[in-house]
Amino acid sequence: MKKLIPSLCVAVTLMMACQSKNTSSGTGDSTTTTSSEDITSTQCYQSIKNRDTATVSLNIENEKVTGSLSYNLFEKDKNNGVVAGIVKGDTIIADYTFQSEGSTSIRQVAWLKQNNQLIEGFGDVEEVDGKTKFKDLGKLNFDKSLVFSKIDCK
Fold it and tell me: What's the rounded Cα separation, in Å, for the pair 71 and 132?
C-alpha cells in the first residue's frame, strides 16, 4: 500500500501534464494549438471597398506566417497567390507570390494588426533580385486605405 500511493500520484501528475501541454480550441474561424514549442492559428480577413475586394487567409505558427491572398480590383486583372513571411509584434511582413496577366510576380506586403483588422501598409518600393520590396520597412504608411476585417474562414 505504501508503494501504491506514490505511484498513483506520479501517474496522475504525468497525465495532467500531458493534457495541459497540448490543448486545442476552435472558434469556427481559427484553430489554436498550444504547447511549449508551438502555437498555430488560422485567421481570415476581407476588405471590400466600392467594387474592390481583397481576401487573405493566414496560418500563423509562432513567428512565421503562410497563407493565401487574392485581390479582385474593379476593371483590373485579378491577382491570386500565396504569402510567406514573419510576424513582428503587431506587424506582418511577407512575400506575396501571385499570378497576374499570365506571369508570376513577387512583391512584399505588410499589415498592421489592430483589434480584429489588418491594415495594409504602403511605401516606396524597389526591385531587388526580381522581387518588389519596400525600400524602408520603418517608413511604411498604414493610413487605413485598405483595411481587412476578420471573417469566418471557409
Answer: 17
Residues 7, 13, 14, 19, CA torsion sign:
positive
Predicted TM-score of the model (pTM) = 0.72
Strand partners for 67:
58, 83
Burial class (CB in 10 A: 0-12, 13-18, 19+), 154: exposed
Residue owning grid cell 511582413? 93
Q: What is the DSSP letter of 145?
A: S
How far is 60 from 85, CA to CA, in rounded Å?
10
Q: How many residues are present in the chain? A: 154
Of 151, 146, 60, 150, the C-alpha closest to 111 is 146
Task: Compute the distance between CA of residue 97 and CA of residue 86 in angstroms, rounded to an integer.
Answer: 15
Q: Which residue has the cell 485598405?
A: 146
Q: Could you tell me the three cell numbers for 76?
A: 483590373
pLDDT digits (tens, 9 = 90+) for 29-72: 444 444 434 567 899 999 998 899 999 999 999 899 999 999 99
Helix or strand or coil: residue 80?
strand
